[in-house]
Amino acid sequence: LFSSVEMAPRDPILGLNEQFAADTNPDKVNLGVGVYFDENGKLPLLACVQAAEKALMDAHKPRGYLPIDGIAAYDNGVKALVFGTDSDVIKQGRVATVQALGGTGGLKIGADFLKKLNPNAKVLISDPSWENHRALFTQAGFEVGTYRYYDAATRSLNFDGMLADLKAAAPGTVVVLHACCHNPTGYDITPAQWAQVIDAVKAGKLTAFLDMAYQGFAEGIAEDGAVVGEFVAAGLAVFVSTSFSKSFSLYGERVGALSVVCSSKEEADKVLSQLKIMIRTNYSNPPTHGGAVVAMVLGDPKLRAQWEEELAGMRTRIKAMRRALAEGLKAAGVKQDMGFITTQVGMFSYSGLSKDQMVRLRNEFGVYGTDTGRMCVAALNEKNVGYVCASIAKVI
Ligand code: PLP
Ligand code: TYF
């Protein structure tokens, strides 16, 4: 039965973790996978999460099945976060939101639903993008192409190329857009450029799928979410996947969501019923713990304020590490201008380093980034940034 099965390539990012774990270099630094580590290099367990977990443990609640679409308070919390508390689309009941297994789960439920809805549509992802975008939409049965986004030669965005590619897309094309903190480049488009993208999506009758995996990591929760409101204001039927993996530091709990904006409450009810089929036929219903924690934090004013403070702390520390990296590289003798590191946002920096340089960083210095030159600046701290800068300076 299995004689024709071939060995699949390992995930280019998650595979680095295994290599890092096996590395005996005492100075090794893991800038590969997109995970936030605190100033001591530790994966944080947020205080707001600890408080919610304690309350949940003390309540000793039984573990029945959740509804197929998840905890109602969770879905409502997601809606408020993504669309704003006073958003008209929520008041009008035009948003179908389901709890999902992380942001990946939200993307997959949306992809499966879109495939059923519009089987001949193509999908466009940014060039480059999070590699799982291509894999996931391909697995859902779509032909996946790219729109131009980053220009390696100038180390900057190719917005004209992006817009031209969107304008050339056939009606019905699903366009996957990073709502904020673009992975892997760290470059986001400006609000004025978003307005042009929205015009192109509307004029071309494209379907926008906003991937919101880092809400709160660029400028703030409302600031980063504002782009969703712009799509809604344009009257578009937009898909939004949400991930709390990074913003709650709940990676392994698999907490995320999918929200679909519809033109009426009746339509949203029908869409929700279809999303529930996707869920039921895959895993029946979501797990309780992570969703219960996030629902409690979002719904309790004190915990919510504590979360916002902790999220701001992560955001501020990442920005400080960007400055330390840029300044450290200069101090280490790197002549080329690395100032772009501080204009990029989110967890990642596209360093512009070549594959050869990244391989040398890994093999000679134990500094792990992806072959594409992506580094997770959220894993830098005061203790390792100097070593990282010195190592980079030696391979440049
Ligand atoms: N989308 C992007 C752009 C990401 O970087 C990630 C990272 O993990 C995800 C989606 C998936 O999120 P999750 O880990 O919650 O499935
Ligand atoms: O890009 C990253 O590093 C994160 C984590 O298959 C991740 O988004 C990486 C690869 C993957 C799943 C998550």
List the helices and strands and how they pair.
Layout lengths: L13 H9 L6 E2 L16 H13 L12 H12 L4 H4 L3 E7 H16 L4 E6 L3 H9 L3 E6 L1 E2 L4 E2 L1 H9 L6 E5 L12 H13 L3 E6 L8 H13 L5 E5 L11 E7 L3 H16 L8 H11 L1 H31 L8 H4 L4 E3 L4 H11 L1 E2 L5 E3 L8 H11 L1
Bound molecules: pyridoxal-5'-phosphate and (2S)-2-hydroxy-3-(4-hydroxyphenyl)propanoic acid.
Notes on the protein architecture:
Its cofactor is pyridoxal 5'-phosphate. Keywords: Aminotransferase, Pyridoxal phosphate, Transferase. The protein is an alpha/beta fold. The chain folds into 2 domains: 14-45 and 313-395, Aspartate Aminotransferase, domain 1; 65-299, 3-Layer(aba) Sandwich (Aspartate Aminotransferase, domain 2), CATH 3.40.640. It contains 15 helices and 13 strands. The chain has helices spanning 14-22, 47-59, 72-83, 88-91, 102-117, 131-139, 159-167, 191-203, 221-233, 265-280, 289-299, 301-331, 340-343, 355-365, 385-395, and strands spanning 29-30, 95-101, 122-127, 143-148, 150-151, 156-157, 174-178, 207-212, 239-243, 255-261, 348-350, 367-368, 374-376. Strands 2-10-9-8-7-3-4 form a 7-stranded mixed beta sheet, with helices on both faces. It has a two-stranded parallel ribbon with strand order 1-12. The protein starts with 13 loop residues before the first helix and ends with a helix. The model has no long low-confidence stretch (mean pLDDT 97). The structure holds pyridoxal-5'-phosphate and (2S)-2-hydroxy-3-(4-hydroxyphenyl)propanoic acid (TYF). Residues 11, 13-14, 33-34, 130, 132, 183 line the site of (2S)-2-hydroxy-3-(4-hydroxyphenyl)propanoic acid.
